[in-house]
Each structure stands twice: as C-alpha cells, then as structure tokens.
Amino acid sequence: MSCTTIELAQFSPGTRRDLTICRFGRPGKGPKAYVQASMHADELPATLAAQHLRALLQQAGEEDRIMGEIILVPAANPIGFSQLLLDHHMGRHHCPSGRNFNRFWPDATAAVMAQEAQFTPDPAVNLARARRIIRGFLDEQAPHAEDEALKLELMKLAHDADIVLDMHTDLDAELHLYIDPGHWPGLRDLAALLRAGVVMFARHSGGNPFEETVAAPFLAMREADIPCTLPITVTIELRGQLDVDDELARADARAIFDFLILRGLVQGEAEAGDFTGIAAPFEATGLVRAPTGGIIIYECPLGAMVRKGEPIAHIADPLTARRTPVKANQTGRLFTRNLHRLAHAGDVIAKIQGTSPLPERKQGALMTD
Q: What tens digit of pLDDT does each residue of 254-289 get?
C-alpha cells in the first residue's frame, strides 16, 4: 500500500487543500477499482467505512492478495470538511457557489463521440481508445473554482476504472444503491452483500452525478452501437447521516471487500447470499412531500411496506391543535425519511420505492438537490 497526497489548486491566498489517495496492488496487473467516500462531506458513515476498508485492503496487500489495482480515497472532499456555519457542518454544497458537490462533474461524452469514426469492431480497442480521449479531455480542463478543481482530480483517478464505488449516506435511511440498469441483475451480489433494502436503476438522472458521469461516454458509445464495455459504477448510500457506528462500518467494509473478491481484484473466498429488497427503476421512486409546514411525526419505520393512500406521517402545526396526515403516494417500501423534523410545505420528507415508473418522474429531472 502507498498513500500519497495531492495538493489541490489554490483559489485564495494562504489556503491549502490536500487530497489523500491510497493505492493497493499494481496498475496493469488486473482490473482497476476506484472507491471514494464522503463526497458529501457531512455523510460521515462513508468515511468510517472507508477506514475499515483501508485496513482490509492493507492486510490483503501485505499478503500479496491484490490481483488488480485498487484506489481508495477515504475522504474525497476536504473542502466540505472545513465548511461550518454557526456550528453546523455544511458538507453537501460548495458554500461560495451553492453547487452540490455531487453534481456537474466534467463529462467527456462529447469529446469521445466527436471521434466516433475512429472506433473499431473490437471492444477492447475501443475501451482503450475511449479512455485516452477522456484523459486528454480532462487534461485540457481549466477549473474556475475550488470545487471544480477537486472534481477534476477525482475524475482523473476514476475515469479508467473497471469498477467505481461512490460511498454516500442519505439523511435517515435504509442502505440503498443506485446502479445503471445495464448492470442488473449482475450486481445482485453487491446488493446482497450490503443487505440493501432498495436498488434503483439510474440512467440520465440529471445533474451529472459522479457515477453516471464516469459511465456516460461508454454508455453513449453503446447507444451508438460501438462495441464497448460499460464500467460498473455504483452509488452506495450507507443508511443515514447519524449511523456513525463501528459495527455497521466494519460490516459495510467487509461487504465491499468481499465484492472485490468476487470480481477478481482480491484473492480470497466470499459468498454473496440472496438479495431480498426491491430493485426497480429510479422513475419508480416516489417523493413524498409535506402538504403543509410544521413538525413531522412519522408513523411508519424505515423498511415498512406501505400502500398508496396510507398515512405514513402527520404534520403538527405548532400554533394550533391541527395535525395534517401525510399519505403514501404509491405502494412500496419506505426507505428514506427526513433527518430534521421541521418541514416547510412542499419539502420532500420521505421516499417510497415502488416497482412501476410514476408518470411525474422523468429522465433528466430525477435528482433532488
């Protein structure tokens, strides 16, 4: 194992940001995996899981069991780690610009498709050529802000990986995954290892989130009938922000480590078991909004199976005795809730995963900020 630091570009005098990169195995020895944690810097269970994963990978490296190249970025957002406002950690958005740290990643799709005529019937040749084009595109970028510079460095590390795992957490949630539909049911093993409650098939969600942007050039090639391998790209939501627990983090790290074994990056034995949750399109994810402002009182626990029209919460008006029911907008699994219990009218206070796409859910506008 070797850990190095990258000094990020400075955008104000007297400041410095460092990005720690841990490398295991050897480039070219086998497939490459890239794992990063807490791009939303206030999602600390991901960083804790990365700490435990680092220990497992270090031991495997010492035993010469790393069969490929693995890059781990244990704390992907040093900018967000430093953002505090009145003692509140503000790790989701870049405070100077208001940009979500997991949106607007540099996308090389247009650069790749501009050279469409150079591709061949050989998928391996096309993959190598596309990666060279992407790297050239990234090297030409000139970031104009600190968050853009960070994203560019991370994309340079991840763009040529065969497996990309981006570890996050939701607010108050069951463990759930976002994957490209082309990788299902092939990723049932990862979902089973992590004991995910929900798997969402996400493609063209909008806003260029990290895992979709890494895959976007290769997906465009396939859609243009250019033979090419689609990298495995997954966002792993490790429950909720308050689930900072060594036992959970240790189990999550072991699950990811076992997945790397099953994919041939680490030598060893692992079994996945069965996935028992819901796997369905992201368009089937129902966003439950507060009908009025007030205090949220949840009636259903995470993981509950609910029916459309069933009350899942009430909103208590603190100025009157009135309580307004919040009803499920579809039948499915309640898998996220709001961490904060004060709602404004129109706020998303829960998500329910069904199995059939909802008419109001459209590609390109599926993400909430």
A: 999 999 999 999 999 999 999 999 999 999 999 999
Tell me which residue has tokens 């981006």. Answer: 166
Question: What's the token pair of residue 51?
Answer: 């700490």
Give Cα 5 to chain centroid, integer Å.
23
Query: Under a CB-based contact definition with an 8 Å cutoff, are residues 359 and 195 in contact?
Result: no
What is the rounded CA–CA span in Å between residue 293 and residue 323?
Answer: 10
d(CA 162, CA 78): 25
Could you give the angle at the alpha carbon of 126 between the alpha carbons of 187 and 218, nearest 5°?
45
Helix or strand holding residue 332 (H, E): strand 332-337
Quick: pLDDT tens for 41-80.
Answer: 999 999 999 999 999 999 999 999 999 999 999 999 999 9
Are 232 and 256 a contacting pair, CB within 8 Å? no
Q: What pTM was computed for the model? A: 0.97
Domain architecture of the chain: domains with CATH: 2-276 (3.40.630.10), 284-353 (2.40.50.100)
Residue at token pair 């706020």 = 347
